[in-house]
Design brief:
alpha+beta; Immunoglobulin-like; Jelly Rolls; five-stranded antiparallel β-sheet; 12 helices; 17% helix
Length: 612
């Protein structure tokens, strides 16, 4: 352990020796038992720099020129007990004046060594927070079971590790210290702060408070430039990213992915005004990049424009991958690194948000879309995506409304003067439509990083998206839009290049998915079977999935096409339950069993419904 780490540990030990009763509570008691009514009252008077950090270095090592530490620091004193936040901190060795990032994991994730390491290789110091107690660091890891060991104080177990300790409150998530803990609840419990219904009982509040203390930790590190701090996070970490950017002006750039825009529905008006996404968004003054895939369940694309309207800084951008749900591909994930390079380093310039317009009323009844990318940068391609599985405006705030797996049609644009143009034929005028455009640009040199789930990626391009354009069915009818897609039993011919109605999270593998079967044009007729013709140069264990139901078929190698036919009963979920029919299927995936990848990609043709 080096001198810097020893001093950290000595300071921590001195503070830990102080009786907790002699240390002041971090939050004042309620006056007359009245809880905060709004955002300003919730955060009034709180100073994230006031208390000592009591930093502990739990483990330190070096990795390829990067100094790595598992650390803990004080969040605060609540109900007489100290709360300590664990995380992984790292930076390039001997570097100074570094831009720095807070990285916040999602609900099922951990603090990540790889996120810290890959950022350090790009010249950033990073603190990856373990707000749920889980730590993914090779020499010092704490998994789900390890958090339970820590909760139970089983210090004699060889897997025991010190990690995040919320003290008298319970702000964990899976596993919580108390089984009855609900992470979105503001109701009083023995392990909450206030004895009345209060936003100060919400773990969302304590996570944001802890993240503000993380900024204090970073700005006190000798290798960090305190004027260049950013934050990013995925899923629940995206929501916390929005909360931190809204509550603390020290954040100079923020990138939430798959969260932070849709947490509108809270059980009271007070909580909506204090801890909701909307309350936090309305206080953001720094630049924000929203990574929101078009089919994400947690950061829903229909909430993106209202969220943007709340942000006080016009320097926002969007990267929205079509078809994806809570996952992404490198050309979208890399926008995080590029955005921080612009706003914390000044070494990159993100193109302007593409301006998009749609002419709905045309002579042939087929709408025409136009896009105007940033004129200072020539794009590789421009692609329009649009869906008629849109939600009517009147239903957008319905709590119980099911969120469909939207099928997004693709229209490749062609350049015409200074704009890019494409036709958007629709299936009917009886459903509303949403549309957006993606503009993809080349990178001068490849950029590498750690993605949403910390896997390594390298991108040679990046994509910037427009805002969503929406039109109601009544307006489509008034514009005279004509139906263009009658029903068909042919789902895919596989002639030519597979178009962008199909997608994958593994671009190096031939497997693909589509939401086509969720659209009336390709929806399964009653009593149908699913047919496919396969040509395999090597033995293939073919799998076709419909949502969480899968059917498999061993395909021998050969020079002849082989027909495969599946009935609904062939598709079973993990519990062994079979499909009754195909009519409710929303997503179809063609692939092969994990661990049994064939050396060469098979060929397919005539994916279709076979009707008796």
């Amino acid at each position: 352990m080096n001198f810097h780490s020893i001093m950290f540990t000595i300071a921590a030990a001195a503070t830990l020796a102080m009786p907790v009763s002699a240390q002041e509570e971090s939050l004042p008691p309620l006056v007359d038992g009245i809880a905060p009514k709004n955002y300003d009252e919730l955060w009034a008077g709180y100073d994230p720099r006031k208390e000592p950090l009591d930093v502990e270095v739990l483990h330190e090592w070096e990795k390829d020129g990067v100094v790595m530490r598992v650390v803990r620091f004080r969040v605060g004193i609540f109900k007489g007990k100290k709360a300590m936040f664990a995380g992984i901190y790292g930076f390039p060795k001997d570097a100074k004046n570094l831009p720095s990032l807070v990285q916040i994991h999602g609900g099922g994730q951990s603090a990540s060594e790889n996120a810290v390491f890959t950022n350090a290789k790009r010249g950033y110091a990073t603190l990856s927070l373990a707000w749920a107690g889980r730590i993914a660091a090779g020499p010092y890891s704490v998994n789900h079971d390890g958090v339970k060991l820590f909760h139970e104080g089983k210090t004699g177990n060889p897997n025991y590790r010190v990690t995040t300790d919320w003290g008298a409150i319970d702000a964990y998530h899976n596993p919580c210290r108390n089984k009855e803990t609900k992470f979105a609840s503001t109701k009083p419990t023995p392990w909450s702060l206030d004895a009345v219904d209060s936003p100060r009982n919400s773990p969302w509040f304590f996570w944001a408070l802890g993240a503000r203390r993380a900024l204090t930790f970073l700005e006190q590190q000798p290798e960090v430039d305190p004027a260049r701090l950013g934050v990013y996070g995925h899923s629940m970490g995206g929501q916390q990213t929005v909360a931190l950017a809204g509550t603390d002006s020290r954040v100079k750039a923020a990138v939430p992915s798959c969260g932070g825009i849709s947490y509108w529905f809270i059980d009271s008006a007070v909580n909506q005004a204090s801890v909701s996404d909307a309350a936090n968004l309305s206080h953001i003054t720094c630049p924000v990049l929203f990574l929101m895939p078009s089919n994400d369940f947690n950061g829903r694309i229909e909430d993106l424009s209202p969220a943007i309207d709340l942000v006080k800084n016009p320097a926002w951008r969007i990267a929205s991958a079509p078809h994806h749900n809570h996952q992404d591909s490198p050309e979208f994930e890399v926008a995080t690194q590029l955005f921080f390079d612009e706003h914390l380093k000044g070494s990159f310039k993100i193109p302007a948000t593409p301006a998009m317009a749609v002419q709905w009323k045309t002579s042939d009844g087929i709408p025409i879309a136009t896009a105007r990318p940033d004129p200072a940068r020539e794009p590789l391609r421009v692609d329009f995506y649009y869906t008629q599985q849109a939600i009517p405006q009147s239903d957008l705030r319905s709590k119980s409304l099911p969120r469909p797996a939207h099928f997004w049609r693709h229209a490749a644009a062609k350049k015409s003067g200074q704009v890019w143009v494409a036709k958007l034929p629709l299936a009917d005028a009886d459903r509303p439509v949403w549309a957006f455009v993606n503009v993809t640009y080349p990178l001068e040199a490849p950029v590498s990083g750690a993605g949403y789930y910390y896997g390594d990626y390298t991108a040679d391009r990046f994509t910037i998206s427009s805002r969503l354009i929406a039109l109601e069915s009544e307006e489509l009818k008034a514009a005279g839009v004509k139906p263009s897609f009658p029903p068909t039993t042919l789902i895919e011919s596989f002639k030519g290049e597979l178009n962008s109605d199909w997608f994958t999270y593994k671009p190096n593998h031939w497997g693909r998915s589509t939401h086509r079967i969720h659209e009336p044009q390709w929806r399964a007729p009653a009593g149908a079977k699913l047919g496919l013709e396969v040509l395999a140069a090597d033995p293939l264990n073919l799998e076709i999935s419909l949502g969480d139901h899968t059917a498999a078929k061993a395909i021998p190698a050969g020079a002849d096409w082989q027909e495969v036919v599946f009935a609904p009963a062939h598709f079973k979920n993990k519990r062994g339950e079979a499909l009754a029919d195909f009519t409710a299927a929303q997503i179809l995936t063609i692939g092969e069993s994990l661990g049994k990848l064939s050396p060469s990609a098979p060929k397919f043709r005539n994916l279709r419904w076979i009707v008796p």
